[in-house]
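Purpose: get a first structural picture of the assembly so the mutagenesis plan has something to point at.
Setup: two entries, given in the order below. No constraints added.
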Amino acid sequence: MENFTPISALLGGALIGVSVSVLLLLNGRMAGISGIMNGVFVAPKKEEVWRILFLVGLVLGAMLFQFITQDSLSVRENYPLWLIVCGGFFVGFGTRMGSGCTSGHGICGIANFSKRSIFATLTFMASGMLTVFTLKFFGAVS
Amino acid sequence: MKNNLVALFAGILFGLGLALSQMIDPNKVLHFLDVTGNWDPSLAFVMMGALSVTMVSFRFILKRSNPIFETGFHVSKQTALSVPLILGAATFGIGWGMTGYCPGPAVASLGLFSVEGVVMVVSIYAGFFAERFVVKK
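Result (structure tokens, whole complex):
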């Protein structure tokens, strides 16, 4: 567990909690990112702008962090491309079918005491763990 | 106008949170999912950090009749557990375990000029569109 970073994890998590609260208090929206991403192409024109701006904000936030800390976060390279292409597809398909991802179910839904979100979160955590175990077992990743 | 600025601001905060907590690093997420290996429980602490804010704030916010800049809250009223919910979450988990990215970090990683992040975001959208064709709602 030498990579465990509890303090920055708690603080970063709290920032995410504040972001989600701001969006709900001011705009009445749940910050479920898969839903926001999907909405960019399916929502009525007037409803698209805030979604695009939220996603632009995510990108800017990551850039801003690099700028403030002068700490260049490492970018992963040479990871098997087929895993990204297929895995990305499953993330898209699954989050639509299951109506949410880590943010929508894991943070917003659980805070709203939604039984659906608690079940969804337990399910994707378990299947994620099982997937990593399986990929390592068959030597697809180190 | 105001709600667009709020969305941008909320997005920036969220992106900062993902970077500070290192959840933007897919390998760190994979180390959380790797329970039988060199386990890194950080992701659970990120969720605890976020939930410790939202568990309290949501109680006060949802007691209001309206949000500040909009009329009405857009909150899911679904309560029943369903097969698509569980199957969808399980499918998402498989993709998450294959890549180490969930949707938020995938988008945020574009800010680090991650080539892999671009492929990830495009693949996620392919999954969105496929789901719309396959699953009739």
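Chain A touches chain B through 108 residues (CB under 8 Å).
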